[in-house]
Design a protein that fits this description.
Elements: E1 5-9, H1 14-25, E2 32-35, H2 40-50, E3 57-60, E4 63-66, H3 68-76, H4 80-85
Parallel strand pairs: 1-2
Antiparallel strand pairs: 1-3, 3-4
Helix pairs in contact: 1-3
Length: 86
Amino acid sequence: MNARVLMYTTAVCPYCVRAKQLLKARGVGEIDEVRVDLDPGRRDEMMQKTQRRTVPQIFIGDTHVGGCDDLYALDAAGNLKPLLES
C-alpha cells in the first residue's frame, strides 16, 4: 500500500479498533494515529479539518474518508483498495 493513512482516535473507541482492523486486513502496515484524548488541541485540529467531532476520523492520502462506517462502506463498494494504492 502506498497511501499514507492518518487516523484521529481515542483510547477507548471500539469503532477505532474496527477501523484499524479493516485497514490492516487490507494491507495497511502503518497507521499514523493521533490520540485526541491525550491532546485536546489535536481534537480542535480534527474538527476544523473534518467538521466532525466523533472518532475515528480517517484520512487516506489527502482524502477524508470519514468514520468507521464510512470506511466499511468504501470497502463494500470496492473503492478502498484503489484509494490505498493511489
